[in-house]
Amino acid sequence: QVCRGLQTPQVPVWLCSICSRHSVLFSTDSLLLSDWRRERVFHLYLYSGQREQGQTAHLTVDTHSHHWEEAPRVDPSSPGSRRPSLEMAIRTKWEGATVSWKGTEPFF
């Protein structure tokens, strides 16, 4: 039997399976999912338990950024312009959001 705290977590938690790897994406802001104003700019943390991840990744998500504010790209299909799979997964919840990896090299 699952305890009540695991059935209803106090903070937003997403279990992710990206590229056949499991990870946990979470926020320490308990109001993130209940107050739409918190969804402007917020922080998410990613932990995968993989060897290549030395510490929990700290991501900043901006849901009100505009495509013209991003750096220009030459060709959207070129390997250098592709987005990490984790960013695409985040965009399934917050369409058009930009994700900053805060200096961490994207590993998903």
UniProtKB/TrEMBL annotation:
Residues 2-103 form the Deubiquitinating enzyme MINDY-3/4 conserved domain. Residues 65-84 are annotated as: Disordered. It is an enzyme of class 3 (hydrolase). Keywords: Hydrolase, Protease, Thiol protease, Ubl conjugation pathway. The keyword Magnesium does not apply. It comes from the Eukaryota. GO terms for molecular function: cysteine-type deubiquitinase activity; K48-linked deubiquitinase activity. Belongs to the MINDY deubiquitinase family. FAM188 subfamily. Hydrolase that can remove 'Lys-48'-linked conjugated ubiquitin from proteins. This is Ubiquitin carboxyl-terminal hydrolase MINDY. It comes from Zapornia atra. The gene is Mindy4b_0.
